Amino acid sequence: MRKTLYYLDKVLSFFEEWTLFLMVFAALMGLFITVVTRYTITYTMTWPEEFVRQVIMYTTFIGCSVAVRNRALIRIDAIPNLVKALAKPLDFVNHVAVLAFAAFATYYGIKLVGLQVMTGQVTTVMKIPQRYLYCVLPLMGILMILRQIQVLYEDITGKPIAPK
Fold first, then answer.
1. What tens digit of pLDDT does each residue of 29-75 get?
2. In a domain, 164, yes or no
3. Among 58, 82, 83, 127, which one is most buried in terms of CB atoms within 10 A?
4. 143 found inside a domain
């Protein structure tokens, strides 16, 4: 099990890091093009602004998986700090809540993608089918579930999946 989770961690880390890097780089290039054209030829293009909005949405959702991996999700830790005996049970409740949210996002993300397929909506300027943009919701949910399983395994066994 640990070996499987280790290789899964390698694959997911590669996907997350490169996807986030390439998307942020593409957004930077889009903004650069907008600024250059606005101030050199006094022409404002609209597609880079829409593209950057879509990239921000995509990187936010993929970043949720990275936050689970890094244990960087927001949570209230006042009670576990005051009552140490409640730390483990509350961690378990936190894990269950994240898994429930990820399952919710996956299920309803798939429903939203189906709705977009039926309606055939496209983005305003770039005419990208919305179904492709909405695919990030179930992807985020699945990535969060896989990452949460890894975190849960580490907490139960007390051993890290990957050597640090």
1. 999 988 888 888 888 888 888 899 999 999 999 999 999 999 888 87
2. no
3. 58
4. yes
Q: What is the chain's length?
A: 164
pTM, two decimals, is 0.87
Range of the domain at 125: 2-157
For 8, other C-beta atoms within 10 Å of its C-beta total: 15
Other beta carbons within 10 angstroms of residue 145's beta carbon come to 19
Domain total of the chain: 1
**Is 163 contained in some domain?**
no
